[in-house]
Specification:
The protein has 450 residues and is an alpha/beta fold. The chain is 47% helix and 9% strand. The chain has 13 helices and eight strands. It is elongated, with a radius of gyration of 26 Å. The chain starts with a helix and ends in a 51-residue tail after the last helix.
């Protein structure tokens, strides 16, 4: 006992979580992702043991192999994301399905349901913001209409990156892992206690490795932006002592040089993805200074301070707003430079800023949450106008969420993702109508107040 009392306090919450995992190992075996169903209670019981459930009557929507791949993807990410594929049936009333499912599963997390031909998702706000869930849901529905497997995969890819918390302990149980008596239980607890600190260290190393990979990808893009800004300074060919130069011009030029140096210095010491945001903010400020200097030298009014060109911030401050729509999305006004405005007026698509992704070169708004700090520096950060401009795109799904730019500490009273809370959750997180999003293509859950 004295030894145990000395060890347990050091393990702290890690041991507590792992102890729950041990208990789950002896509770019951996990239902397979394609387990037979007999109502919402069966769906909930299955999701307590595995992240993906497919009703036998809905296997034409998601095959057994695809369901297993999806479950593995979620388990590997270690995030509380639950996916259910269900048929339209009386036992799944669309008006209250999401709230009832969350109640019966009882675990904080992200819940995605494919019902018939429709799709919807909700989440506890401590795990993923309502804006992020709504934007992501709309984006995947528009980009994967009629393709349930592609839709669910796209949703899971993004949700597992954005969701806070960790996978519920109940997913770890299996019959093969159960012991045959008290000695096996004691042995397992001992192993868990010994591995607790090491397991947490592995988790931290994994998180750091992912952040380093994201920062490396961002570094390529930001270095290109810094180089482009330096080339603009050279092309300007301004000399503070040149004929006609005044104090205002010299001030603009000095400010542009200072922001250029600041961007390089900040990028040199960047240690995590969020550190990129002040770098691109400095570049945006420097480009506005250059625009003011160019106007003064040309003898024309200094332009008003506007957001950078939406299509490529390297174009400098925007000159006007113009209508644009992402593929399959609704039109919206975006800030554009004069050249891109002319292209849009001629019904041509401007060349968007391309960045590297696992799937090749993509416009930055299709690159996912890793590029949120880069875009946030140019367009104002979390809660800025860019989240509204990019509704219906992958990046737009995260720009309104605080977690897109910083690791925000959760409120003390808010449960972490993966914790069991039963029916004690905010119904507002699983409520509200579809507000015009609908389930495109028919088969939606219906209207009404959730």
């Amino acid at each position: 006992m004295p030894v145990a009392r000395r060890v347990l306090p050091r393990l702290g919450p890690v041991l507590a979580v792992l102890a729950l995992m041990v208990c789950a190992m002896f509770a019951s075996a996990p239902a397979p992702a394609h387990a037979a169903g007999a109502g919402l209670d069966s769906v909930a019981e299955a999701l307590k043991k595995s992240p993906v459930y497919v009703d036998p009557r809905a296997r034409d929507q998601l095959s057994e192999a695809d369901a297993e791949d999806l479950a593995k993807k979620i388990e590997d990410a270690g995030k509380p994301v639950f996916v259910a594929v269900l048929p339209e049936a009386a036992e799944f009333p669309p008006g209250t399905l999401m709230r009832d499912l969350r109640t019966q599963v009882g675990i904080t997390g992200v819940y995605a349901v494919h019902l018939g031909d429709g799709f919807n998702a909700n989440a506890d706000s401590s795990v993923m913001s309502r804006n992020a869930v709504g934007n992501l849901t709309g984006a995947v529905k528009r980009s994967h209409s009629g393709d349930p497997e592609g839709l669910l995969t796209a949703f899971v890819d993004q949700a597992t990156q954005q969701a806070k918390g960790q996978a519920p302990a109940t997913w770890s149980g299996s019959e093969d892992d159960q012991g045959s008596g008290g000695a096996a239980v004691l042995f397992t607890v001992g192993v868990v206690a010994a591995a607790g600190a090491g397991g947490y260290a592995l988790y931290r190393r994994s998180k750091k490795k992912r952040e380093r990979a994201e920062l490396d990808a961002l570094r390529v893009v930001v270095d290109e932006d810094i180089t482009a800004f330096g080339e603009e300074l050279d092309r300007l060919d301004f000399h503070p002592s040149e004929p006609g130069a005044d104090d205002a011009m010299r001030q603009d030029y000095t400010h542009a040089l200072d922001t250029y140096d600041k961007a390089k210095e900040l990028m040199a010491v960047a240690a995590e993805p969020q550190d990129v945001q002040p770098v691109t903010a400095a570049l945006e400020e420097g480009r506005f200074a250059l625009a003011g200097l160019a106007a003064r030298r040309a003898g024309i009014p200094v332009p008003e301070r506007r957001a950078p060109c939406f299509f490529d911030p390297r174009h400098g401050p925007s000159a006007m707003d113009a209508m644009w729509a992402p593929p399959g999305g609704m039109p919206r006004n975006v800030p554009v430079c004069e050249a891109d405005a002319d292209l849009l007026a001629a019904a041509q698509e401007p060349m968007a800023r391309q960045v590297r992704t696992a799937h090749g070169s993509e416009p930055y708004w299709n690159a996912g949450p890793a590029y949120a700090p880069w875009a946030g520096g140019y367009f104002g950060g979390a809660g800025s106008m860019l989240g509204g401009l990019l509704v219906g795109t992958m990046l737009g799904s995260v720009l309104n969420a605080p977690s897109a730019f910083a690791d925000t500490a959760p409120v003390d009273s808010a449960p972490d993702g993966g914790e069991f809370t039963g029916a004690d959750f905010n119904p507002g997180d699983f409520g509200g109508g579809f507000e015009g999003s609908g389930f495109e293509g028919g088969g939606d859950f219906g209207g009404g107040d959730w």
